[in-house]
Amino acid sequence: MEDLVEKAKNGDKDAFATLVTQMQDDLYRIAETRLGNCEDVYDAVQETIIVAFKSIKHLRETSFFKTWLIRILINKTTDIYRRKKNRKFVSFDEIKMSEKYDTEMFDSVENGIDFNFICNNLKYEDRLIIILYYMENFTDKEIGRILNIKENTVTTKRTRAKEKIKKIYETGGKNYG
Amino acid sequence: MDNDELDKLLYHNLQTQKKVSEETSKKLSKIIHESIYKDIHKRNYKQYSFFKIFTTISAALLLFTGIAYATTKVYKKIFNQPKEVSGFYSSNNTISKEEENKAISEDEARKKANEILKNFGHENERIKSAELINNPDNNKLIWQVKTDNEILIELNAIEQDYYYYIRFDSILNENIQQYRTTSENAEKTARNICKKYGYNLDEYTGLKITTNTQDFDDAYIWYLEFYKEYDGIKNPYQSISLAIIPEINELYYFETKNIKFEDTPVQVSEDDAKKIAIEAESKVNDNYKVKDIFTELAIVETNGNAYFRQNNYEQYYIQMHDNNYPIEKNISYQVDSLVRKAWLVTFEFDLDDNSSNNMIWDQYYTYYIDVETGEIIGGDSSYGMLSELK
C-alpha cells in the first residue's frame, strides 16, 4: 500500500483510485454511523475523495494514509450533517433521536447485535469507536489518533459502550426496532 | 454473556456486515471514478483570509498593549501558566506520587461510598474493591468502588470538587418487557426518584431527555439530565443525571456533579472574542485558509490544550498523529482547574485548499475565551468534529 500512496502523492490517479477502492466499504460504513440517509453517505464519500486527492501530496508519512483518510471522512460527515440540519452544532443525542437509518438493509444476524443495533443504541462517539474497533480493526491508540482523544479515553469509552450493549441486549434488545 | 463472548460476537457480526451490497459497491465505484478522473467544481463558501483579518485588527490591538483584550478596562487574570508534564497521562492509568498525595485516602473513599450506598437503600452492601483511577474524560482522579452485588460507585478523589456516580447493573437483570412510556411520565418518575433520595431539583432549570433507542416510542431506558443554567447557558458541571427504567420504576444509574462555578458577567463581546482567537490562530496558522468561524457562549473547564498548541505546535500534532511516536515522550500541560463562562470560537479550516504547505489533519480548532478577562483559558481540537460540549 505504501508504494501506491507514494505514487498517489506524485499525482498518480490510478494509484489513488486503487487505494480508495480498497477502502470503499470502510468509508461507506464509517459515514453511515453518522448519516442515516444513503445519499448523504455517498456525498460524504465523494467529498472525502475529492479533498483527499487534492491534499495527498502534503501527507507526511505514507503509513498514515488510512487514518488520515478516515479523519477527513469524519469531518465531511459532520459537515453534511450540519448542512442538512441547518444548524451550527448539534448534540450526539439529537442525532440519535432524529436520524432514521434508511441505508441498505443488512442480512440479519441471528443474535441481533449488528450495525443497526449499535447505531440505534449508542450515542455517536461511542458507536464510532465500536465500529472503528470491531469492524475496522483499529487499535485504541489509532482510534485516539483519528478522533484526537487520549488512548485511555478510547479504552474506557469502548468498555462502557460494550457494557451498555451487553445490558441492553440481555434485557430485551433482541427485539429492538 | 461474558466480555469475551461479546467481543467475539461484535467482531464476527460487524466484520460480516462490513461488505456493502453489489448495488452500493457499483455506485461507490462510479463515485470514485468521477471524483478522481473528472473535474468537480468547488462549492461556494465564504472565506476568511488570515492576513486580511489580522491587518484589520492589528491596528486596533496596537493601542491596547499589555491588556487582555481590546478595551480600556483591565481585569485580573485568572489563567495561570500551565505546567508541562511528561508521560503523566500517556500510559494506562499512570498516577504520579504528586497527584496521589492530593487525593483522599482509600479509607475516606470507602466511607463516602458507604454513605452513598446507605442513601440509596443499600446500607448492607459490601464493598469488594476500591481503586484510584485517572478519569479519562477529564484527567481528574476518581475513586472507583465496586460491591459484591454489581453496584459501581465513582466519586471525586480531590476534595474541592463534588461528584459521584452510582450504577446498579443488577437492575437490568430484571425481566423487562420493553414497557413504553412518554417523556412526560419519564420526567415525572425521575423527579420522584430524585425527591425520594433527597435531591431538590428546584435550581436545575434545564432538562435533556434521551433514550436507549432512536425513537422515544420504543424506549425502555430513559436518560435524564437536570442541569443548572446561567442566562440560558447550560452548566454541565452542576447537574444531576439519572437513567431510569419506568417499567419497574427503578434507577439504573445516578450521577451528581457540583463543581464550583462563579457566574461572571460577559465583559468581552463576541466580536472581541473572535479577534482574540484570530490573533492567536494567526501566530500558528501556516497558510491554512479559514472557511468559517463559529462562536457560542458556554461554560467550560480550563485546560492547557490551546497553550500547548500555541507554544509547541509541532509536538502537539506529532504526538497526536504519529502512530510510532514513543508514549514516554508524550507531554501535556496541566492547569489549575476552573469552571468558567467562555466564548467558544471555532475555526473551520478549508480542507479543499491545496495551497497549504502543511499536512491537513484537523479541520477544526476551538479556543475558549474567558468572558470576563478575555484570556484564552483552553482549547479543543475535537469539538468542531464531534460537536460535543465538554
Structural commentary:
The complex is a heterodimer of chains A (177) and B (390). Helix content of chain A is 68%, strand content 0%. With 177 residues, chain A is mainly alpha-helical. Chain A folds into two domains: 95 residues, RNA polymerase sigma factor, region 2, helix turn helix motif (Rna Polymerase Sigma Factor, Chain: A); 73 residues, Orthogonal Bundle (Arc Repressor Mutant, subunit A). In chain A, α1 crosses α2, α8 packs across α10 and α9 crosses α10. Chain A starts with a helix and ends in a 7-residue tail after the last helix. Chain B has 390 residues and is of the alpha+beta class. Chain B has two domains: 163 residues, no CATH class; 162 residues, no CATH class. Chain B has ten helices and 14 strands. In chain B, the strands form three sheets. Chain B has an eight-stranded antiparallel β-sheet with strand order 2-3-4-5-9-8-7-6. A four-stranded antiparallel β-sheet of chain B has the order 10-12-13-14. Chain B is globular. About 11% of the residues of chain B have low confidence.
Distinctive features:
heterodimer, A: 177 residues, mainly alpha, Rna Polymerase Sigma Factor, Chain: A, Arc Repressor Mutant, subunit A, 2 domains, B: 390 residues, alpha+beta, four-stranded antiparallel sheet, 14 strands, 28% strand
- From the N-terminal CA to the C-terminal CA of chain B, the straight-line distance is 33 Å
Oligomer: heterodimer
Uncertain spans of chain B: 41-74, 354-360
Q: How many strands in all of chain B?
A: 14
Helix content of chain A: 55-70%
| Level-2 CATH architecture of the largest domain in chain A | Orthogonal Bundle
The residue ranges of chain A in which pLDDT falls below 50 over 5 or more consecutive positions are 86-103, 173-177
Tally of domains of chain B? 2
Give the radius of gyration of chain A: 17 Å
Major β-sheet profile of chain B: 8 strands, antiparallel
Number of domains of chain A: 2
CATH superfamily of the largest domain in chain A: RNA polymerase sigma factor, region 2, helix turn helix motif
Helix tally of chain A?
Answer: 10
* Number of helical elements of chain B: 10
CATH topology category name of the largest domain in chain A: Rna Polymerase Sigma Factor, Chain: A
Mean pLDDT of chain A: 78
* Shape descriptor of chain B: globular
CATH class descriptor name of the largest domain in chain A = Mainly Alpha
Mean pLDDT of chain B: 78
Briefly note the structural class of the backbone of chain B.
alpha+beta
SSE string of chain B, helix = H, strand = E?
HHHEHHEEEEHEEEEHEHHEEEEH
